[in-house]
Design a protein that fits this description.
Aminopeptidase, alpha/beta, single chain, 327 residues, binds zinc ion, binds D-tryptophan, 8-stranded mixed beta sheet
């Protein structure tokens, strides 16, 4: 649902239909049928349509993160009670859904930090599709857009995987990183502890850090052409123009993966940079104002979210996961 720029039901159905048509066209080209899930004439497994991710569910996770911050000194920062509570919340949902979860411990600035890794059982473990978001906020505030938005969108996507009838051909792994705000300490730790054989099994890593900015842009990471194209294809079905993400090179948890030679992609709706008038013309919102004026501030609360951007980005994540894992 889209309170800011409500789409009439007919248009939402049409956009969903477009995605379905794309999938149908791919299946027709490969000689597959949508129903059977049998191998195609070319031997490739057909890709079933990605689900529509409920933005209401994503926002319910954000409301939980906000309550957690409220109850724990106003933040969910590394080494604080609000981080631990955020991790328990996400882990509880994943465990109940059948994920195999692992908590990885590390130390940063004299405090213990944690990554949460969640593997969906099955798929070819020689080909791992990974997606992540950081679960820590800065100490200044609750971090609802940065990066409650990515954490919540990813959680709802993981739950959608657990509910889906079709099994992914590749192995799916989700990560919620600790201490990103201290310099990507959690994700760097994960990569440094990963055996080189296990690194080689990761076919791609997708990062979602800030996907519900209140004055949003639609930025797609340009690090890997194939991963970039998957997201561009999705936004093309919505008729939303995208730009290549250039603000954040090396500024989030995809950087350690990229440095390890793993293809990376991701989405970003903008931080403290100012939206230009050209960008406001194509995306709406306010020119001359930051994409997120509450970036790293106490006002990064539940009201610091554009529901439409959060909705589209959540659905784009599902599209990419389904495409890349061959669900
Ligand atoms: N790393 C983010 C902020 C950030 C700024 N630019 C980008 C570009 C792409 C992803 C993230 C970012 C933070 O957590 O503060
Ligand atoms: Zn962030
Ligand atoms: Zn940040």
């Amino acid at each position: 649902m889209t309170p800011h720029r409500p789409l009439p039901p007919a248009r939402r159905r049409r956009t969903a239909g477009t995605a379905a048509l794309l999938t149908a066209a791919v299946l027709a080209l490969t000689g597959a049928t949508t129903a059977s899930g049998a191998p195609t004439a070319s031997g490739a497994a057909p890709v079933s349509a990605a689900p529509d991710i409920s933005v209401a569910n994503v926002k319910a996770h954000l409301a939980q993160f906000q309550s957690i911050a409220n109850a724990n000194g106003g933040n969910r920062a590394h080494g604080r009670a609000g981080y631990q509570a955020s991790l328990s919340y996400v882990k509880g949902k994943l465990d109940a859904a059948g994920f195999t979860t692992t908590v990885q411990q590390f130390t940063a600035s004299g405090r213990t930090g944690y990554n949460l890794i969640a593997d969906w059982p099955g798929g070819d473990t020689g080909k791992v599709v990974m997606a992540g978001a950081h679960l820590d906020s800065v100490t200044a505030g609750p971090g609802i857009n940065d990066d409650g938005s990515g954490s919540a969108a990813l959680l709802e996507n993981a739950l959608a995987v657990s509910r889906a009838p079709a099994k992914p051909a590749k192995h799916l792994r989700f990560a919620w990183w600790g201490a990103e705000e201290l310099g990507m300490v959690g994700s760097r730790n994960y990569i440094s502890k990963l055996a080189s054989a296990d690194r080689a099994r990761i076919t791609g890593y997708l990062n979602f850090d800030m996907v519900g900015s209140p004055n949003p842009g639609y930025f797609v990471y340009d690090d890997d052409a194939a991963l970039e194209q998957v997201f561009k294809d999705y936004f093309a079905t919505l008729n939303i123009p995208t730009e290549r993400e250039t603000e954040g090179d090396g500024r989030s948890d995809h950087a350690p993966f990229k440095n390890a030679g793993i293809p990376v992609g991701g989405l970003f709706s903008g931080a403290d940079y100012t939206k230009t008038s050209a960008q406001a013309r194509k995306w709406g919102g306010t020119a001359g104002k930051a994409f997120d004026a509450c970036y790293h501030a106490s006002c990064d609360t539940s009201s610091n979210i554009d529901t439409t951007a959060l909705d589209h980005n959540s659905d784009a994540i599902a599209y990419a996961l389904w495409q890349l894992s061959g669900a």
